[in-house]
Amino acid sequence: MVRAKTWILKKQFDGFPERSNFELKGEELSEPKNGEVLLEAVFLSVDPYMRLLSSFGMKNGDVMIGTQVAKVIQSKNPTFPIGSHVIAPCGWRTHNVCCGEGLIPIMRDWPQDVSLSLALGAIGMPGLTALYGIEEVLGLQRGETLLVNAAAGAVGSVVGQIAKIKGCKVVGSAGSDAKVAFLKELGFDQAFNYKTVGSLEEELKKASPDGYDCYFDNGKLRSPEHITKDFENMPAAFIGMLKGENFGKSIVAV
Ligand SMILES: NC(=O)c1ccc[n+]([C@@H]2O[C@H](COP(=O)([O-])OP(=O)(O)OC[C@H]3O[C@@H](n4cnc5c(N)ncnc54)[C@H](OP(=O)(O)O)[C@@H]3O)[C@@H](O)[C@H]2O)c1
């Protein structure tokens, strides 16, 4: 029998959460039955949508919603052999018994020198969001100039780099001077701290006086991650992300 740790939503919050809105609990898990697997969390994703869903889609006492990279440690489902990894919508839990529904297998030949945490970041949903937004929503073309908000975060940091590879000029806005420096390191053409600029309109004109047009560069995509250690720190990582402490994708490593 395995004892899982879970973080529950103790008290719904309006606006900004505090540590006291969450409670760490234990949960006894039964052995997996036929068709089921026992999962162990390796990396947990920390995302902005958690605030919205905890207000509208959850009630007090529910396990916090979320996605993780998990390892299959017991299996009675041949699709998910022991030792394989999956993306699992298990919420803020260290362990979970579930049938295979909703699990996304991670390819078995995942390169050893690439962290599996990237399946929650640049190679996962935030990376796809960045690519889809650029290609399908914006239809961004070489030579165009792009402005990115929350540019130092999971999606924004990838958006800016893809736009650079496509030959665009990229201007990023972020919430601290350290993030502005970080965006320059990633190759953004211009970056500014939206919290300290006098006039946003003037700053935007200064960043691109010619009306936001073009520059070409090329390079490798970096996938910055902001890793917090230990499952016990899930609320701290979530609150920190909402305060803007993350550079790149916010992840908790178990
Ligand atoms: N991750 C995904 O797969 C995904 C998918 C679809 C849509 N989205 C949406 O894309 C946006 C960015 O997501 P992300 O995953 O890349 O998050 P993120 O940028 O990694 O983290 C959130 C960042 O947003 C800023 N922020 C936090 N609270 C804020 C507030 N109340 N008002 C304004 N800015 C705030 C902070 O940066 P500063 O310090 O720079 O302010 C913080 O670091 C979100 O709206 C999210 O819902 C994400």
UniProtKB/TrEMBL annotation:
Keywords: Oxidoreductase
Keyword Transport: no
Enzyme superclass (EC): oxidoreductase
Bilayer-crossing regions: none
Pfam families: ADH_N_2, ADH_zinc_N
GO BP term, pick one: prostaglandin metabolic process
GO molecular function: 15-oxoprostaglandin 13-reductase [NAD(P)+] activity
Domain Enoyl reductase (ER): 15-252
PANTHER family from the UniProt entry: PROSTAGLANDIN REDUCTASE, PROSTAGLANDIN REDUCTASE 1
Recorded family membership: Belongs to the NADP-dependent oxidoreductase L4BD family.
The protein's name: 15-oxoprostaglandin 13-reductase
